[in-house]
Design a protein that fits this description.
The complex is a heterodimer of chains A (148) and B (124).
Chain A: E1 2-9, H1 13-27, H2 32-53, E2 60-68, E3 72-79, H3 107-114, E4 117-123, E5 126-134, H4 143-146
Antiparallel strand pairs in A: 1-2, 2-3, 3-5, 4-5
Helix pairs in contact in A: 1-2, 2-3
Chain B: E1 2-8, E2 11-20, H1 25-32, E3 45-56, H2 58-73, E4 77-81, H3 85-93, E5 101-103, H4 106-113, H5 115-122
Parallel strand pairs in B: 2-3, 3-4, 4-5
Antiparallel strand pairs in B: 1-2
Helix pairs in contact in B: 1-2, 4-5
Chain lengths: 148, 124
Amino acid sequence: MTVSRMTAPTIDAVAHCTEFAAAQAREAGFSVARVHEIELAVEEIVANICRYSYDDRPGSVELCCRRLDGPKLALEFIDYGRPFDMLNLPPPDLSVDLDRRDVGGIGLPMLRALVDQATYRREDARNILCVIVHAGPRLAGDPAATGR
Amino acid sequence: MECKTQTLANVVLIEVEGRIDHGTAPAFGSALLPHVEGCADESKKLLLDLSKVTYMSSAGLRVLMIAAKGCRKQSGKIVLAALQPTIQEIFKIGRFDMVLETFPTVREALVAISPAAAALYGER
């Protein structure tokens, strides 16, 4: 099992974590479409950590990537901010009219759609979010998912 | 991320190219949101050509939502054209397809929102 790790300060954690995860997925042989999906998921996760776990204050985000059989990747995001379980946030109401829609809030539905499993735990004053991503694209629009 | 703008009759056509992510969304907002001003009724409409957008995260969708709300407040119109398949799926997840009108091509969008602009587009 291959394990790779990185740590980035919050100021540029989104870009660094996204690039790191994409590189790991490419090395594991994932399709271009699936790499894009993983980039989207990682961007949502890390942006949420920086904004809510750290309340936009300086901190760091660690990302540990384990390559598993399948192939699939286990991506573990660790931060030292306040307790924050993004998987338990209330879902946004996306059914309302444009006037009543929040301008944000769709990151979590996107995350759920893009990863195969996600778990959260609080351990030793750390937030640990683990997501499993399989090689197969999740979105129907991906050419690799529809055989186009 | 790059935006190229042209005016066709009463339509401002903005061609967006590249990635719209956490890092580039502010630039996307700076390029798009000033055009929302004055977008009201038939006098000015906005059309975004997204055919060359390869990646859009929720940061980009947020900018689109702000633009859509701004246009709505002024009884204006903003529509999108030529979304790539993955971005179409992202739109469905966020139910953006319920709040923003999309068209398969720029030409079809122009025909729907401004025959005068469509005629100018067709002359090229």
